[in-house]
Amino acid sequence: QLPLVESGGGLVQPGGSLRLSCTASKVNFDYYGIGWFRQAPGKEREGISCISITTTYVADSVKGRFTISRDAAEATVYLQMNNLKPEDTGVYYCAAEALHRLTTIQQMCLMGPSITSWGQGTQVTVAS
Predict the structure, then answer these.
(1) Are 94 and 34 in contact (CB under 8 A)?
(2) Is residue 81 scored above 90 in pLDDT?
(3) Nearest to residue 106, comparing CAs of 68, 53, 46, 49?
(4) Which helix (H) or strand (E) covers residue 72, if one does?
């Protein structure tokens, strides 16, 4: 279990932007896939975007609007969310999985609850 901490959620109007951060002190992210998942009220948790040292995956539902990036020196992964829509509302979770357990980074975004490490979540609300 990695000590993942999310930040950056909040209330934003439709069309607005937010940047989420996921940090884990004293962890070398090079050995992990890091992903962002969201859970809307009454819905299952879904993988939004996942990143490794070499590749990224972005779900079709957010492609063109959300961008995932990583800062290895700061052990931080970001999720830049632009043109937010009300349907983006939910709790956003950061997750981590050891790369040796993954075949592809897309697989991580599809693993769901079986991923090893999770943050506590940060609320994103898109409303006018």
Answers:
(1) yes
(2) yes
(3) 49
(4) none
- 34 neighbors 49 (Cβ within 8 angstroms): no
Strands 56-58 and 66-71 come out as unpaired
80: confidence class by pLDDT, cuts 50, 70, 90: very high
Q: Which of 12, 27, 119, 18 is nearest to 78 (CA)?
A: 18
Separation of alpha carbons 14 and 12, rounded Å: 7
Average pLDDT of the residues of the chain: 95
Q: How many CB atoms lie within 10 A of CB 36?
A: 28
Distance between CA atoms of residues 89 and 41, nearest Å: 8
Strand spans (E) along the chain: 5-7, 10-12, 18-23, 32-39, 46-51, 56-58, 66-71, 76-81, 90-98, 117-118, 122-126
Q: Over the stretch 94-125, which tens digit does the pLDDT of each residue have?
A: 999 999 999 999 999 998 888 999 999 999 99
